[in-house]
Known about the structure:
heterodimer, A: two-stranded antiparallel ribbon, 76% helix, globular, B: two-stranded antiparallel ribbon
Amino acid sequence: MDTRFWLIQTFNGVSYGALLFLVGSGLSLIFGVMRIVNLAHGSYFLLGGYVALSVIWATGSWLLALPVAAMAVAVLGLVMERVFLRPLGFDPLRQVLLTVGFAFLLQQAALDIWSGNNFDISPPAALTRSVVLGGLYLPLYRVFMIAVALAIGLALWLTMEKTRLGATIRATVDDAQMARGVGIDTSFISMLIFALGAFLAALGGVIGGAFLGIYPGLDFEMLPIVFAVVIIGGMGSLGGAAIGALLVGLADNFGKALFPEVSYFTLYAPMALILAVKPTGLFGRE
Amino acid sequence: MSMAGTRVKVLAVVAALAAIALIVPHTGSFVILLATRALAFSILVMSLDILLGYTGLASLGQAAYLGIGAYTTAILATRYQFGLGYDFWLVIVLGMLGGALLAVLFGMLAIRATGVYFLMITLALGQCVWGLAYRWNSLTGGDNGINLPQRPKFGIDLADEVTFFYVVLSIFTISLLIMYTLVRSPFGRSLVGIRERELRMKILGYNTWLHKYLAFVIAGGFGGLAGVLWAHTAGIVSPENVVLTTSVDALLMAVLGGAGTLVGGVIGAMIVFGLREYLSTLVPWWQYALGAVYVLTIFYLPTGLMGIPERIRRRRALLGNRRDSKELASVAS
């Protein structure tokens, strides 16, 4: 194990972390704003990938697939929030069960529409090359993933910190009741954040589909990993999601490479410990 | 609740169990296996109900305890040929101890958390167990799991479906009895007190942490027991048994039947297993039915199926009141 190994693994970990950030930032915001444990978030990821496949099959355009898939799933998330979650009121258990009921329904629907086969989403040829950097061959696609995550992260951060909308979202995260009290439409904020979360998860599904593949069961495989990101980083905080994604991405990569037999354990044990010591996560807003 | 009402309910459960014991063995082997599976899994659902229905702790990681019991059984059986004779009963004790010990450990981390955070931390702990089951190939067989050689044989042969069904039914009945006694004991009453209002219990001088912790450990023990039976029922133990969706299944069954009723979990398990294994052989859309059952239950039956009689009674009482007031009004005019 020389420096090359460490560099390559670090690069892989960071790029996987970039993907996790896309999926995790949305989940983190949803939890922060609505205190909902959304077990359908993995389904958004998977559906994003499937819708993208259909768009690619129909038009051959990967670039078109990105926004179409993300928007389609965002609409689904919006409907779920408005029609089902909102009337339910605040009861963590019922919310969790409802989202999981939907996860099962969506799983079956995906199986019926796209069959049980494994698919790969192939990105445009321009992105499948490698770049040589300091003697290392880095797949351009993974560089692209990091770039997308950085761009989205920056856009989210600017919106959250510099705009009026961002301020109202932050206020809702900190104290929804108080936010309502000063006239913020928290119901609208919830809807917006839920749709945004679904949008980002689906985007992650399209982008991640290129190297994870798209197959039944991927939804419940991604879900706990994304929860680990959100919890380690801290719920309701963008910076936390970024750090959590980076940590989980690296831990996952090095864990699998160095001690495969306990690799998932090393991912979830810190998650449990952090929850036990500081339930709001390392960088969560109190 | 009145004494008479309780007696009627207990009699109804006894009658239902007797009916199951008498009818199921005369059906086909498919139904016998289905009933055996549902009964074994019901022990896990009831253990979860002690937490969910009586203590107010919604755990998303209960499958971990099933997994400990199941893997203990499978590893002992395949590596040491242990637990395939009279020592089966020893494995049951070991499985329960395993589940309880795991809960001793996990409880220390989880019990302080409440609400959503308890859901999350139990999810994380469950995933720890799943991660080990899935990846620790040399011990657990990884993704393929472990096939059990045969069912135990000691005077009676558990490979016989009907015999095994009766053994599982008996263990299930004993578990139900123990858990029922537990939730009706002063300890169980304090758990309900904690569910309703923890702060008040604290002020009254109860050590609520310890109460919750003990409930968690007891639930873990019964989870381990369910695992031992499950391993022999299915004949194979795999990461599938400890995956998040299994924990979610247990939670849904408890809620579907009615949380805080113990036997509700059995009804929930029967319905879900029935839909999943029977309906799936008939129609391709069975999972929609299952999903719809969940969504409808959460929306329209927050108290579960066991809550239906109570709802009907309330509605009747409401209608009765209305009629009375109408009569009063007509008399007055």
